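This section describes the prediction task in plain terms. A model, or a person checking by hand, is given the sequence of a single protein chain and must write out its three-dimensional structure as a string of tokens. No templates, partner chains or ligands are provided. The sample shown here is typical of the held-out split.
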Amino acid sequence: MELVKDVPCPFCGTLCDDIIVKVEDNEIIGTINACRIGHSKFMDHKSATRYTKPLIRKNGSLVEVDMDEAIDKTAEILANSKRPLLFGWSSTECEAMGIGVNLAEELKGVIDNTATVCHGPSLLAVQDTGYPVSTLGEVKNRADVVIYWGCNPFHAHPRHIGRHVFSRGFFRNRGRSDRTVIVVDPRKSDTAKLADIHLQVDSGRDYELLDALRSVMNGHEIPYETVAGIPRDTIYQAVDILGKAQFGILFFGMGITMTAGKNRNIDAGICTIQELNQFAKYTLIPMRGHYNVNGFNQVCTWQTGYPFCVDFATGYPRYNPGESGSNDLLQNKEADSMMVVGSDPGAHFPQKALERMAEIPVIAIEPHRTPTTELADIIIPPAFVGVETEGTAYRMDSIPIRMKKLVETDLLSDKEIMEKILERTKEFIASK
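The expected answer:
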């Protein structure tokens, strides 16, 4: 048995890189340090729902084909589309994403990722207001006030609190007792139960609470007994704690990005952090979900100047969320083909978008059976990044992490599959 140390976990945006994986006879037989979800990701890479051969739907049924036939059919569909949509990219390596952007440009199509239905508003707010960020290492070593707003890392990012908040840091060597934790959430979540202060805000009224906090910070009185369900005295107490911090951090999730206000909530949150820097050092980090959802935003911005919803229809990149987003294209029946890589819109998109997916050719580059593969006309199974192949991923704080290869497989990586699709697509386009 071999113990592979310092393995990054390919599950969530925390990208814990202290995992020890037990490998024997090219099989993963156990892990050390991983959370239960991360452990399952490593152990289930050969599960019963895993695809091992490419499939094409013929006469209503999926049949096994060889890789060349699947690549040819994929390239033919994409090359003959007038408005192809390339979506997903959150659970694959950055190298495959770069080729995906090149493919979208070649097709004059649209490329988008799962941020469009999670942290897209965060990206819009960053463009408006700025981005006062830090690393998770700085949080562990320095933060004495930690705010979790609209997120529940206890379940969504299970080791986040233990590794970066309740652990001992260089300047916070007493761990939990050195830090004040504030949770803002309409529910008394398991994360809220761990907090020193739980601001149980009324659902959808986060902007009002942020505005009230900013008003008090700037010396104004609150004329109401409560704001967004929070008593006035509790708001004063929270501002007092925030103002006395040495180093504070705001972690925020979809509870604030996908409720009423959306990117304006994040605008207000960023402005709150900027104004708190008059009193102490403050930063923020979005709680990104999939292990490499941040990576796509990084890669797409390098190559196009925009983080998501990029439209190449005119031959150059254009960016117009609300028009060039995946749900907009599907619900408006603009997209006439769709390639899904490293995500599962079939489980998360609204009904109207799924109805359009059922009407058009869908290609899924996906290792497991999912609601999306049930709609797919072509399924190409790749190797698992971080288990069966290497690759680069970006942590939620925008730190690049190199994923490790632990076991061998006959399957191609997403990068290799994308290279073949791009090459074959160029040949189809040249022959038209």
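For orientation: The first strand starts at residue 2 and ends at 7.
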